[in-house]
Design goal:
The complex is a heterodimer of chains A (about 120) and B (about 425). Chain A has about 120 residues and is of the alpha+beta class. Chain A has a single domain (about 1-50, about 75-115), classed as 2-Layer Sandwich (Alpha-Beta Plaits), CATH 3.30.70. Chain A has helices at about 20-40, 90-100, and strands spanning about 1-10, 45-50, 55-60, 65-70, 80-85, 110-115. In chain A, strands 2-5-1-6 form a four-stranded antiparallel sheet, covered by helices on one side. In chain A, strands 3-4 form a two-stranded antiparallel sheet. Chain A is globular and about 50 Å long. Chain A starts with a strand and ends in a 5-residue tail after the last strand. By secondary structure, chain B is an all-alpha fold. Among the domains of chain B are: about 5-105; about 345-414, Serine Threonine Protein Phosphatase 5, Tetratricopeptide repeat, CATH 1.25.40. Helix content of chain B is about 70%, strand content about 0%. The radius of gyration of chain B is 25 Å and the shape is elongated. Classes of the chains: A alpha+beta (about 120), B mainly alpha (about 425).
Chain lengths: ~120, ~425
């Protein structure tokens, strides 16, 4: 089965080091190691980090008219920061791999099965 | 050879009551789909009603039901467009069901351990875990599970089908968890079993018969778990705890259904056979040398159950056990119970100080005010005790509790 691991965290929960600092390199090394773990285990189905919510734009179509607007609506504390697609046999495997995501220590990882149409 | 519909009905009910867990476990194991397994078993039961009336009740009722349910699953897979993907499973299923045709009592592999871990998976909400475990592994039908929760049958039916759907759609596995998940998952299973027991043990939930049945279901599940995984001391711990608590059940309620406190119970009514079994289970657990919260609670319960008279209770030992329990579960409720034990061991002032420290956190908790009232009364603070009883009565959620508290309040000196 395929699972989407949605990575949520509250801003300010984690240090946000600037590129070029040793702290940034340490942080990136952890993510790279995680990616390698996923690849080696054969569960990596892709994943990306997202730019922060203030860069988001929403679009909707009502009555044939397109409306474009700034930002997310909900003032939620936890924000979506990125995702992975994990290819696992079952939920327990997906949860085990999702728990390895560094953000799991401060935020929450939501694991959802991806719908299959075959 | 035809059979009377009534007799057939009884035979089906009995088989499902006794063997639902085994049948469901075997089916989920073979089909790999919880929802479908449940549907197929229901269809098999309906088919049994018709066939057994016409041809008589078969020798192996369990085997018959399993066989028919498997065939229903095969029919289902054949109808599905995913046939190609399922081809391998289909062949396997067909082989299995062929092999079982002529055998009187097929050798059904016992997959109930896998099943209980599926039903108690933390991806399901706690109430659904309890309901699904009762429905799937216990012998209760949906109406009985609904009665246990004071829910309507349709509401409970929806809850159960949502839970089954989540198991299938989210890919909750049908397997015994590996070592890295074992502790968390076993804790979840034990919590479900103990919740079932407590649902039966609290006054006011459902009828007396229902309550008794829930306690017995929980004990049955713990015994089953112990047989399937005999090396887990906490399983024996929860079993022991339930046995020594259940042993006291006949003395817990008065003629009017009101609670009788431990120190006023007629101890000759306690079930000595259950106490002995509970104490033996605890001894066996402790001999494994891996302690845990259920074993500690079981030891406390065993000390109560072993005292022939209330004033022979070993309160010093009980306080020590609560100290250890606090290391596992540092919760205000455990601190409250510890404080009561401290008072009973003769240190009333110390206990009252501890209750003062808990007052804010436990303000909405009825047993806190009931215990506080009693200790205040023991200390001679009658006015304060009366206020605490008033607060407890205000928070009481059922008539027997309220009646009990009002009686205690009336006993206060003027």
């Amino acid at each position: 089965m395929k699972y989407l691991a949605l990575i949520y965290d509250t801003p300010g929960n984690r240090p946000d080091p600037k590129p070029g600092t040793p702290e940034f390199d340490t942080m990136m090394a952890r993510w790279n190691k995680l990616n390698q773990t996923y690849v080696d285990a054969g569960v990596m189905g892709g994943g990306e980090a997202l730019m922060p919510p203030e860069t988001a734009t929403c679009v909707r179509v009502r009555g044939g008219k397109t409306e474009t607007m700034d930002g997310p609506f909900a003032e939620t504390k936890e924000q979506l920061g990125g995702y992975y697609v994990l290819e696992c046999d079952n939920l327990d495997d997906a949860l085990r791999y999702a728990a390895m995501i560094p953000v799991a220590e401060t935020g929450t990882i939501e694991v959802r099965p991806i719908m299959s149409f075959d | 050879m035809a059979a009377a519909p009534d007799a057939v009905h009884t035979a089906i009910d009995y088989t499902l009551r006794e063997d639902r867990g085994r049948l469901m476990a075997a089916l989920v194991g073979a089909i790999g789909d919880f929802e479908l397994a449940d549907e197929c078993l229901q269809e098999a039961a309906m088919a049994a009603m018709e066939h057994w009336c016409r041809n008589g009740v078969p020798n192996s009722r369990r085997g018959w039901l399993l066989q028919v349910a498997r065939r229903r699953a095969i029919d289902h897979f054949r109808r599905q467009t995913v046939l190609r993907k399922r081809q391998a499973e289909l062949v396997l299923l067909a082989e299995e069901s062929q092999g079982a045709t002529e055998i009187g009592e097929p050798d059904i592999p016992d997959k109930r351990l896998e099943l209980i871990f599926t039903c108690c998976h933390p991806a399901l909400d706690p109430k659904s875990r309890v309901a699904l475990t009762l429905r799937t592994l216990g012998g209760l039908d949906t109406a009985q599970v609904a009665a246990a929760f004071l829910d309507r049958e349709t509401t409970m039916g929806q809850r159960l089908s949502r839970a089954r759907a989540k198991i299938s759609r989210a890919g909750i596995p049908f397997e015994v968890p590996g070592p890295e998940l074992w502790d968390e998952r076993l804790a979840s299973v034990l919590a479900v079993i103990y919740l079932i027991f407590n649902a039966g043990h609290v006054a006011g939930a459902g009828g007396a018969l229902m309550r008794r049945e829930l306690c017995e279901e929980a004990i049955y599940l713990a015994r089953m778990l112990d047989r399937l995984r005999p090396d887990e001391p906490e399983v024996l711990g929860v079993l022991s705890l339930m046995l020594t608590s259940f042993a006291r059940a006949p003395a817990r309620l008065g003629a009017g259904g009101e609670m009788i406190p431990l120190d006023e119970q007629d101890r000759s009514l306690w079930r000595k056979d259950l106490i002995c079994e509970g104490v033996a289970a605890l001894d066996s657990a402790v001999s494994r040398g891996r302690g845990g919260p259920y074993q500690i609670k079981a030891a406390i319960s065993a000390l109560h159950a072993s005292a022939r008279r209330s004033d022979e209770t070993d309160w010093t030992q009980i306080v020590l056990l609560y100290n250890t329990l606090l290391q596992h579960e540092p919760t205000p409720v455990v601190r409250l119970n510890r404080a009561v034990a401290v008072a009973c061991s003769g240190r009333l002032t110390m206990a009252l100080e501890e209750l003062d420290a808990l007052a804010q956190e436990l303000d909405g908790y009825q047993p806190f005010h009931a215990a506080h009232a009693r200790l205040l009364a023991d200390a001679g603070a009658v006015a304060a005790a009366r206020r605490a009883y008033d607060r407890a009565i205000e928070l009481a959620r059922n008539a027997p509790d309220r009646a009990f508290l009002e009686k205690q309040k009336r006993r206060l000196p003027p």
